[in-house]
């Protein structure tokens, strides 16, 4: 092979790799219903598996009062599994914040609190 052909082949492979790395994009959103007696704080996180992303990044945040229902998003991100997560927390929360990966589109979630009173751990379940 001549040098020109090798150079052309190398450029073609670089362009193909760049196109494959770009990947497809999707919109992510959540519709969250807070059924707890406390306000909850909701964040959409773009995870580090995004091309060019150095670390996870909170993109959108919202506070939902007791009994409130609200939308968070949409944000545009890769359509790869685990590209966007939702984190839901309240104060005081005796356990870790609830975190789950979102699927492309809108995910409908319900936030509940375990135990009596206003200090139990929160649980998040998907509405179907």
Describe the fold and architecture.
It is a single chain. By secondary structure, this protein is of the alpha+beta class. It has one domain (24-126): Immunoglobulin-like (Sandwich), CATH 2.60.40.4150. It has one helix and eight strands, in the order αββββββββ. It has a four-stranded mixed β-sheet, with no helix packed on it. Strands 3-2-5-6 form a four-stranded antiparallel β-sheet, with no helix packed on it. A hairpin with an 8-residue loop joins strand 7 and strand 8 (122-126). The chain is elongated, with a radius of gyration of 20 Å. The chain starts with a helix and ends with a strand.
Q: How many distinct helices?
A: 1
Please state the structural category. Answer: alpha+beta
Q: Main β-sheet: number of strands, strand sense, barrel status?
A: 4 strands, mixed
Question: Which CATH class applies here?
Answer: Mainly Beta
Instruction: Characterize the overall form.
Output: elongated
Please give the domain count: 1
Radius of gyration: 20 Å
CATH topology: Immunoglobulin-like
How helix-rich are the residues, as a percent range? 10-25%
H and E order: HEEEEEEEE
Strand residues, percent: over 45%
- Give average pLDDT, whole number: 85
Strands of the biggest beta sheet: in what spatial order?
A: 4-1-7-8
Number of strands: 8
Q: Please report the distance between the alpha carbons of the first and last residues.
A: 59 Å
Please identify the oligomeric state.
Answer: single chain
- The CATH architecture: Sandwich
What would you give as the CATH superfamily? Type VI secretion system, lipoprotein SciN
Q: What are the low-pLDDT stretches, counting only 5+ consecutive residues below 50?
A: none
